[in-house]
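Human: Respectfully, please carefully check these tokens:
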Amino acid sequence: MPELPEIETLRRDLEKEVVGRKIKSVEVLGDKVTARHKTVPPLAERLEGAKVDGISRKGTWLLVRLADDVLALNLGTTSQLVKAAAKDPVTSDTQLVVTFTVGGQLRLLDPKATGEALVAGAEELSEQLPELDEMGFDPLEDVISWNTFGAALTRQRVKLKQLLMDSRFIAGIGTVYSDEILWAAGLRYDREASSLTTQDVRRLHRALLETLHDGVKHRGVSQPGDAYVDYYGKPGGFGNELKVVGRDGQPCRRCRQVVVKSRFGSRFTYHCSACQV
């Protein structure tokens, strides 16, 4: 599912495209993505007539900020958030259509309804989405020194990949970017965080920031069979930059040994057994 760079790419696209626009109408075509609205006023009623004041992000949640309310969008494994024209056919996988008075439509496409849309008052957002307050630091937004990062990291007696993917420690990293970060840092996925040396921490801190910023620069990852596209319906280009993910059996781009695909819990992980230690 989309990770931090993909959601940040969409945030920037939305900031450019929809801020200042007024919402003319909202059509909810899939009840599952708005399931949390069982006990709050319907999503459409609260959005129609409102103007978009800004676009922000909390981890992998996109926050469309209006005068009084916030439309929170969370993309799942099969979700796409794309720009459309009112004349474009509405496909069967369309879950939500937001029509602006000027500037076309925003559509949430999701054949399996794995995403989520919720509207809440700005002061009610934490109550409706308590998980937002439980998120760890955001590497694309929060400034954190390597020694502060290391102090938090080395207190953890868990495997590195598990820790990188824990949203309570770092917001928004999944299996793709965790593998790429660990390759860049030269560290094994199953290394215990508490075992890292000062040099290990410095390499991991640098790899974390550089990998995620490169992901944004190339507008995210779209792998074969992956649903992610940007707001304009175009796939991300970072897949061409991946060093280990999807490259099992091929030479490592650093040491030329073979990249390995291993099972880690319920997931697979990609790494070089020679130069990641």
